[in-house]
């Protein structure tokens, strides 16, 4: 039997688990007049009564005039649940977190017209006359006053939504009409659960780091300077892993209020806005009368959350400051030489990637910013790569000193977000001038990589020394570890370039799909740990050979980029003895993968990834991706894919292993 649940703005379906036979009896039981049935002749359809009453002998048939005046039967059903907390009286949370009692649970007495019966664990009683009934419960050991929701339904099909009712000292009184079924969910609350406190969160937005150093300021400086226009932010309160309440606040002076929280360790988690780094949180504690209990204290922040030890009667007021993360721009070139037989007539980026696979060392590139000046020339390294890091947003000119014997190059560029795995990046062709130069715009926090192909001027000239295949392993020497905020969408210039060759946009990759697959995907993270202080960018570094420890204490969290507010991310760990963490049955889409507990001074990177659906042979970076300062990296999963990535981490020398 399904009853519609509506409480405090939320409606859902709560299935009350009536046995099918009990439901039938509740509706169809024959009600006899008191004179015929007699006191004690009631008929029970469920529960465990303390004694079994025997109905009087009745005739097989009643006179027609008597049958026509018999009232419709009524029924009462009560189901008891054991709850870990009161959950603010929210029926959705109570239904989701409380456990149905068995026949060994609470004791109930029901009194009504010519009726009295005792039940254990639950009540399912039909064949009742209309009238006023009293339901009395005896509180289970270790419990306090219950929370009760009741609803009514009629044989006609009309039904009321469950509403919370008041129970006085274990007694509930109800006027039961003829032909009405009363159903109540009786939630037993543990003793001490109403020993509660309150946490208030006052939200502020700070200006960019370049304008105000929020992390170096005290709470008074934060209060004075962090008055940027606010936008709605959602906070969630949890206890022992159970979500208690969710609040959305537009920002100061309107705060998120978590009242009636059971005492103990409370987690307050923010749905961190895009483009913001770790928040700064200062909290003070008073009692319900406003008397100070504890001075203003800076709370320990773990990425997007704090833990607070709440005691009885505490009113905790937290000023929560969001700080825009520092952002930078990376400009990279992967230099590739094409075979002498190849001309300019190859079809698109994919065609060049298939035909041209040799990266080239020793080729000079010059970068000029229209307003930021010349950051200098660089020469491609042994992996055919040059990189300029921590650049400002600007209009840039990139020029190659073309080797002798080669004509005008062919160039494809793609925008990307630095912490993303870039499994689906799109490369657009850029017009190359007579000076072997291209130009493009880059926004703050946006990065661009250009695949730069040299084509022989006469299909037979000298070829610069080719050193390594462009198979996704050019070293990103000098590339700064990306900040977590690079996950935010770039500004109005995102995905565009000025002049001809414009239209590049973030998101795509040269990962070429294999035959189409369907169904859920899976992700496996193979964890490796390097020695403290290990420099994986050193010329003689070989992480695969050097970093052989398979840690069993790595915890990773997987959260969909478009996950609904309040949804708890999935977690997995490497405690399987093999150093691997696996997420099975994952819906295809974009995800943020975060290493829980990675310190800001530690370093992590994804060396390589393998898929049974996609081909990453042409991926232009080594390592495959660097990990943001907050321990996160963005990746995508396609239907039916099994994606396996090798995760390496280097613990800073001064901290030891985490």
UniProtKB/TrEMBL annotation:
Residues 463-497 have a biased composition (Low complexity). It comes from the Bacteria. InterPro entries: Ig-like_fold. Residues 463-523 are annotated as: Disordered. This is Uncharacterized protein.
């Amino acid at each position: 039997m399904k009853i519609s649940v509506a409480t405090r703005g939320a409606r859902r379906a709560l299935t009350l688990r009536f046995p099918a036979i009990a439901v039938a009896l509740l509706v169809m039981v024959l009600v006899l007049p008191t004179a015929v049935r007699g006191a004690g002749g009631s008929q029970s359809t469920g529960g465990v009564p303390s004694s079994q009453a025997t109905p009087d002998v009745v005739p097989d048939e009643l006179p027609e005039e008597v049958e026509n005046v018999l009232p419709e039967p009524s029924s009462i059903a009560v189901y008891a649940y054991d709850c870990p907390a009161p959950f603010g009286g929210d029926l959705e949370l109570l239904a989701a977190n409380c456990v149905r009692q068995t026949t060994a649970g609470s004791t109930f007495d029901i009194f009504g017209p010519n009726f009295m019966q005792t039940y254990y664990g639950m009540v399912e009683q039909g064949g009742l006359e209309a009238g006023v009934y009293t339901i009395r419960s005896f509180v289970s050991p270790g419990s306090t006053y219950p929370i009760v929701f009741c609803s009514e339904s009629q044989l006609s099909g009309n039904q009321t939504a469950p509403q919370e009712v008041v129970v006085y000292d274990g007694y509930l009184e109800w006027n039961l009409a003829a032909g009405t079924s009363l159903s109540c969910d009786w939630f037993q609350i543990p003793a001490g659960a109403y020993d509660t406190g309150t946490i208030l969160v006052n939200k502020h937005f700070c200006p960019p780091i370049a304008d105000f150093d929020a992390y170096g300021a005290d709470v008074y400086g934060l209060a004075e300077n962090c008055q940027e226009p606010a936008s709605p932010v959602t906070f969630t309160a949890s206890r022992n892993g159970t979500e208690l309440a969710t609040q959305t606040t537009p920002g100061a002076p309107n705060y998120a209020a978590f009242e009636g929280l059971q005492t103990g360790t409370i987690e307050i988690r923010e749905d961190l806005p895009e483009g913001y780094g770790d928040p700064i949180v200062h909290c003070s504690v008073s009692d319900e009368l406003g008397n100070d209990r504890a001075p203003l204290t800076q709370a320990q922040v773990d990425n997007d959350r704090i833990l607070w030890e709440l005691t009885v009667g505490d009113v905790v007021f937290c000023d929560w400051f969001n700080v825009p993360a520092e952002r930078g721009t990376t400009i990279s070139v992967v230099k590739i030489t094409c075979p002498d037989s190849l001309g300019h007539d190859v079809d698109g980026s994919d065609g060049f990637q298939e035909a041209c696979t040799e990266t080239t060392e020793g080729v000079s590139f010059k970068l000029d910013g229209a307003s930021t000046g010349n950051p200098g020339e660089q020469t491609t390294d042994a992996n055919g790569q040059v990189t300029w890091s921590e650049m400002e947003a600007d209009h840039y000119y990139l020029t190659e000193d073309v080797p002798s014997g080669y004509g005008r190059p062919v160039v494809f560029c793609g925008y990307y977000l630095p912490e993303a795995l870039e499994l689906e990046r799109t490369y657009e062709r850029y017009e190359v001038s007579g000076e072997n130069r291209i130009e493009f715009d880059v926004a703050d926090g946006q990065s661009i990589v250009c695949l730069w192909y040299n084509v022989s001027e006469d299909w037979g000239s000298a070829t610069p020394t080719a050193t390594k295949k462009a198979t996704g392993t050019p070293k990103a020497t000098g590339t700064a570890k990306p900040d977590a905020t690079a996950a935010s969408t770039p500004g109005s210039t995102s995905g565009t370039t000025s002049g001809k060759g414009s239209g590049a946009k973030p998101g795509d990759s040269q990962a070429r799909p294999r035959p189409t697959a369907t169904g859920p995907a899976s992700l496996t993270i193979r964890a490796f740990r390097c020695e403290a202080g290990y420099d994986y960018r050193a010329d003689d570094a070989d992480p695969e050979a050097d970093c052989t420890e398979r840690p069993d204490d790595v915890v990773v969290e997987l959260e969909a980029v478009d996950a609904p507010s309040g949804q708890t991310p999935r977690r997995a760990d490497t405690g399987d003895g093999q150093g691997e963490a696996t997420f099975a049955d994952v819906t295809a889409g974009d995800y943020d993968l975060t290493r829980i507990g990675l310190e800001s001074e530690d370093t992590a990177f994804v060396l390589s990834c393998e898929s049974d659906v996609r081909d990453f042979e042409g991926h232009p970076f080594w390592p495959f991706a660097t990990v943001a300062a907050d321990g996160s990296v963005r990746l995508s999963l396609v239907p039916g894919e099994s994606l396996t990535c090798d995760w390496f981490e280097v613990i800073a020398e001064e901290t030891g292993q985490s």
